[in-house]
Design brief:
This protein is mainly beta and about 210 residues long. About 10% of the residues lie in helices and about 45% in strands. The protein has three helices and twelve strands; from the N terminus they run H-H-E-E-E-E-E-E-H-E-E-E-E-E-E. The longest helix is centred in the first third of the chain and has 15 residues, at about 25-40.
Amino acid sequence: MKKVAWILSIALVLSLPAAAQKDKRAKTILDAMSKQYQALKSYQAAFTYASAGAGANDSFKGDLAVKGPKFRLKLGGQEVYSDGQTMSTYVKESNEVNVQDYEAAANGELNPTQIYTIYKRGFDYRFLKEQKQGGRTLEVIELTPNRQKSPIATVQISVDKADKSVRNWLIINKDGKRTSYTITKFTPNVNVPDTHFVFDKSKYPGVEVVDLR
Protein backbone atom coordinates (compact mmCIF):
# COMPACT_ATOMS: atom_id res chain seq x y z
CA MET A 1 0.00 0.00 0.00
CA LYS A 2 1.30 3.42 -0.91
CA LYS A 3 2.53 5.33 2.10
CA VAL A 4 1.46 8.85 2.91
CA ALA A 5 3.11 11.59 0.86
CA TRP A 6 4.68 13.35 3.84
CA ILE A 7 6.75 10.31 4.80
CA LEU A 8 7.72 9.37 1.25
CA SER A 9 8.84 12.86 0.33
CA ILE A 10 11.31 13.10 3.21
CA ALA A 11 12.44 9.48 3.38
CA LEU A 12 16.09 9.40 4.41
CA VAL A 13 18.47 7.03 6.11
CA LEU A 14 19.76 9.15 8.99
CA SER A 15 23.46 8.69 9.58
CA LEU A 16 26.19 10.54 11.45
CA PRO A 17 27.66 13.34 9.32
CA ALA A 18 31.07 12.99 7.78
CA ALA A 19 33.08 16.13 7.04
CA ALA A 20 30.21 18.41 7.92
CA GLN A 21 30.12 22.07 6.96
CA LYS A 22 28.08 24.07 9.44
CA ASP A 23 27.19 27.74 9.07
CA LYS A 24 27.28 29.42 12.51
CA ARG A 25 24.40 31.80 11.77
CA ALA A 26 22.29 28.93 10.46
CA LYS A 27 23.10 26.83 13.53
CA THR A 28 22.05 29.61 15.89
CA ILE A 29 18.68 29.91 14.12
CA LEU A 30 18.11 26.15 13.94
CA ASP A 31 19.09 25.60 17.58
CA ALA A 32 16.67 28.30 18.76
CA MET A 33 13.87 26.83 16.62
CA SER A 34 14.56 23.28 17.80
CA LYS A 35 14.72 24.26 21.47
CA GLN A 36 11.33 25.95 21.24
CA TYR A 37 9.55 22.99 19.66
CA GLN A 38 11.16 20.36 21.86
CA ALA A 39 9.97 22.27 24.93
CA LEU A 40 6.34 21.82 23.86
CA LYS A 41 4.34 19.01 25.45
CA SER A 42 2.23 18.72 22.30
CA TYR A 43 1.04 20.68 19.30
CA GLN A 44 -1.35 20.64 16.37
CA ALA A 45 -0.75 22.14 12.96
CA ALA A 46 -2.76 22.68 9.80
CA PHE A 47 -0.72 22.91 6.62
CA THR A 48 -0.83 22.88 2.86
CA TYR A 49 1.17 20.37 0.83
CA ALA A 50 2.17 20.87 -2.80
CA SER A 51 4.45 18.94 -5.12
CA ALA A 52 5.48 19.59 -8.71
CA GLY A 53 8.03 18.31 -11.19
CA ALA A 54 9.27 14.81 -12.07
CA GLY A 55 5.72 13.81 -13.00
CA ALA A 56 4.16 15.11 -9.79
CA ASN A 57 1.43 17.73 -9.59
CA ASP A 58 -0.43 17.46 -6.29
CA SER A 59 -1.91 19.82 -3.75
CA PHE A 60 -3.57 18.90 -0.45
CA LYS A 61 -4.50 20.29 2.92
CA GLY A 62 -3.26 18.37 5.93
CA ASP A 63 -3.45 18.18 9.70
CA LEU A 64 -0.83 17.01 12.17
CA ALA A 65 -0.85 16.35 15.91
CA VAL A 66 2.32 15.54 17.85
CA LYS A 67 2.77 14.56 21.49
CA GLY A 68 6.27 13.41 22.42
CA PRO A 69 7.10 10.41 20.17
CA LYS A 70 3.43 10.05 19.17
CA PHE A 71 1.91 11.59 16.05
CA ARG A 72 -1.21 11.53 13.91
CA LEU A 73 -1.13 12.81 10.36
CA LYS A 74 -3.98 13.33 7.91
CA LEU A 75 -3.14 14.13 4.30
CA GLY A 76 -4.54 13.37 0.86
CA GLY A 77 -7.07 10.70 1.82
CA GLN A 78 -4.67 8.92 4.14
CA GLU A 79 -4.20 8.93 7.90
CA VAL A 80 -1.12 7.79 9.79
CA TYR A 81 -1.34 6.94 13.49
CA SER A 82 1.69 6.23 15.67
CA ASP A 83 1.79 5.78 19.43
CA GLY A 84 5.54 5.31 19.37
CA GLN A 85 5.24 1.51 19.26
CA THR A 86 2.75 0.77 16.47
CA MET A 87 2.24 2.62 13.20
CA SER A 88 -1.07 2.33 11.33
CA THR A 89 -1.58 3.79 7.85
CA TYR A 90 -5.22 4.08 6.78
CA VAL A 91 -6.31 4.68 3.16
CA LYS A 92 -9.84 6.03 2.86
CA GLU A 93 -10.28 5.07 -0.82
CA SER A 94 -9.77 1.34 -0.18
CA ASN A 95 -10.93 1.36 3.46
CA GLU A 96 -7.75 -0.49 4.37
CA VAL A 97 -5.21 -0.05 7.15
CA ASN A 98 -1.65 -1.38 7.30
CA VAL A 99 -0.37 -2.04 10.82
CA GLN A 100 3.36 -2.29 11.49
CA ASP A 101 5.77 -2.18 14.38
CA TYR A 102 6.88 1.43 14.61
CA GLU A 103 10.60 0.69 14.39
CA ALA A 104 10.14 -1.40 11.24
CA ALA A 105 7.83 1.16 9.66
CA ALA A 106 10.10 4.09 10.45
CA ASN A 107 13.39 2.41 9.56
CA GLY A 108 15.22 4.70 7.15
CA GLU A 109 12.42 7.26 7.16
CA LEU A 110 11.91 10.58 8.81
CA ASN A 111 8.68 11.02 10.73
CA PRO A 112 6.98 14.28 11.74
CA THR A 113 8.25 14.11 15.34
CA GLN A 114 11.82 14.46 14.05
CA ILE A 115 11.44 17.34 11.62
CA TYR A 116 12.72 19.92 14.13
CA THR A 117 15.95 18.03 14.80
CA ILE A 118 16.86 16.61 11.38
CA TYR A 119 19.68 19.10 10.91
CA LYS A 120 21.63 17.53 13.79
CA ARG A 121 22.47 14.35 11.90
CA GLY A 122 23.33 13.75 8.28
CA PHE A 123 23.14 17.34 7.02
CA ASP A 124 25.32 20.31 6.28
CA TYR A 125 23.54 23.66 6.48
CA ARG A 126 23.92 27.32 5.68
CA PHE A 127 22.01 30.57 6.04
CA LEU A 128 20.46 31.30 2.65
CA LYS A 129 18.46 34.53 2.85
CA GLU A 130 15.81 36.63 4.58
CA GLN A 131 12.45 37.08 2.90
CA LYS A 132 9.12 38.71 3.67
CA GLN A 133 5.93 36.65 3.83
CA GLY A 134 2.58 37.94 5.07
CA GLY A 135 4.16 40.69 7.14
CA ARG A 136 6.69 38.30 8.69
CA THR A 137 10.44 38.20 8.21
CA LEU A 138 11.57 34.66 7.52
CA GLU A 139 15.11 33.35 7.82
CA VAL A 140 15.69 30.64 5.22
CA ILE A 141 18.17 27.87 6.02
CA GLU A 142 19.35 25.41 3.38
CA LEU A 143 20.13 21.84 4.46
CA THR A 144 22.16 19.54 2.22
CA PRO A 145 22.35 15.79 2.91
CA ASN A 146 25.94 14.59 3.21
CA ARG A 147 25.02 11.12 1.98
CA GLN A 148 25.62 10.99 -1.76
CA LYS A 149 22.93 8.34 -2.29
CA SER A 150 20.19 10.51 -0.81
CA PRO A 151 17.42 11.29 -3.36
CA ILE A 152 17.17 14.77 -1.85
CA ALA A 153 19.27 17.66 -3.18
CA THR A 154 18.34 20.27 -0.56
CA VAL A 155 15.80 21.08 2.14
CA GLN A 156 14.93 24.72 2.81
CA ILE A 157 13.43 25.55 6.20
CA SER A 158 11.89 29.02 6.67
CA VAL A 159 11.92 30.19 10.29
CA ASP A 160 10.05 33.23 11.61
CA LYS A 161 12.73 35.67 12.77
CA ALA A 162 10.55 36.99 15.60
CA ASP A 163 9.26 33.84 17.30
CA LYS A 164 11.46 31.10 15.75
CA SER A 165 8.45 29.15 14.51
CA VAL A 166 8.72 27.14 11.31
CA ARG A 167 6.54 28.52 8.52
CA ASN A 168 7.58 26.47 5.51
CA TRP A 169 9.65 23.52 4.29
CA LEU A 170 10.72 23.16 0.67
CA ILE A 171 12.23 19.81 -0.34
CA ILE A 172 14.04 19.69 -3.68
CA ASN A 173 14.87 16.25 -5.05
CA LYS A 174 17.71 15.46 -7.40
CA ASP A 175 15.17 14.45 -10.06
CA GLY A 176 13.70 17.97 -9.99
CA LYS A 177 10.65 17.28 -7.85
CA ARG A 178 9.79 20.14 -5.47
CA THR A 179 7.65 19.48 -2.41
CA SER A 180 6.52 22.19 -0.02
CA TYR A 181 4.73 22.25 3.32
CA THR A 182 3.35 25.58 4.51
CA ILE A 183 1.99 25.96 8.04
CA THR A 184 -1.37 27.76 8.03
CA LYS A 185 -2.27 27.31 11.71
CA PHE A 186 -0.23 26.22 14.72
CA THR A 187 -1.53 25.50 18.23
CA PRO A 188 1.02 24.67 20.95
CA ASN A 189 0.42 22.54 24.05
CA VAL A 190 -2.99 21.22 23.04
CA ASN A 191 -4.76 18.75 25.31
CA VAL A 192 -4.88 15.54 23.27
CA PRO A 193 -5.38 12.10 24.86
CA ASP A 194 -3.04 9.23 24.04
CA THR A 195 -5.94 7.43 22.34
CA HIS A 196 -5.84 10.11 19.63
CA PHE A 197 -2.70 8.45 18.26
CA VAL A 198 -4.06 4.89 18.11
CA PHE A 199 -6.10 3.61 15.17
CA ASP A 200 -9.55 2.53 16.37
CA LYS A 201 -11.03 0.14 13.79
CA SER A 202 -14.47 0.39 15.44
CA LYS A 203 -14.72 3.89 13.94
CA TYR A 204 -14.15 2.56 10.42
CA PRO A 205 -16.91 0.04 9.59
CA GLY A 206 -15.78 -2.72 7.26
CA VAL A 207 -12.12 -1.71 7.33
CA GLU A 208 -9.66 -4.34 6.09
CA VAL A 209 -6.77 -4.71 8.54
CA VAL A 210 -3.43 -5.82 7.06
CA ASP A 211 -1.21 -6.75 10.01
CA LEU A 212 2.45 -6.72 8.94
CA ARG A 213 3.92 -7.32 12.39
